[in-house]
Design brief:
The protein has about 170 residues and is α+β, with helices and mostly antiparallel strands. It has helices at about 15-35, 50-55, 110-115, 160-170; strands at about 65-70, 75-85, 85-90, 100-105, 120-125, 130-135, 140-150, 150-155, 170. The radius of gyration is 28 Å and the shape is elongated.
Length: about 170
């Protein structure tokens, strides 16, 4: 047996270090290739064209579909969905607070259970001549709720109440 090299069952420390360096280099090369072929857009939210969704929904809806005529600068819609009997529009404010609009043919109680579970009624607000029930959620969410002709409109948001009220005031059915 030679004393100048390592044995098969007991490698020398230098052999272990060389093997680790080779593995680390392979990992770095794979990581670098992955970074080269992927891009980070900076904003993980894909904006949607809510105006197009509104234009398609209004002619076939059996209720007046509500939507803002335009969004404030820096705001973007991230969801717009029409299904027979319901409309959803989700937007993010310029500081990434969420405002979700739901128009559904549900009772107020069922709409709250579905979209604002755990919220508590804290009063009411009048916006453009309509009285909205004001609710606060356990996570700080603000919810405004209005029921008319068997249809419930619910706005659920992480944005401050004043912003939510301004948003509701901007909603139009035309």
């Amino acid at each position: 047996m030679s004393s100048s090299g390592s044995t098969r069952g007991n490698p020398a420390m230098a052999d272990i270090v060389r093997s680790m360096v080779v593995i680390a280099l392979i990992i770095l090369v794979v990581y670098g290739i992955g970074k080269f072929f992927t891009s980070d857009s900076g904003d993980p939210v894909e904006p949607v064209d809510y105006a197009q969704a509104v234009a398609q929904a209004r002619p076939v809806a059996d209720f007046p579909v509500l939507a803002p005529t335009s969004l404030p600068k820096g705001w973007r819609a991230n969801a717009a969905r029409f299904e027979p009997g319901s409309w959803h529009l989700g937007v993010l404010t310029d500081d990434d607070k969420y405002i979700g609009l739901e128009q559904v043919r549900l009772t107020s109680k069922r709409a709250i259970e579905t979209f604002a579970e755990g919220s508590k009624r804290t009063g009411s607000v009048e916006i453009d001549g309509a009285t909205w029930s004001l609710r606060k959620g356990p996570d700080g969410r603000t919810t405004l709720l209005h029921t008319e002709s068997g249809r419930t409109t619910l706005v659920n948001a992480t944005a401050p109440q004043s912003v939510v009220e301004d948003y509701v005031s901007s909603l139009s059915a035309s």
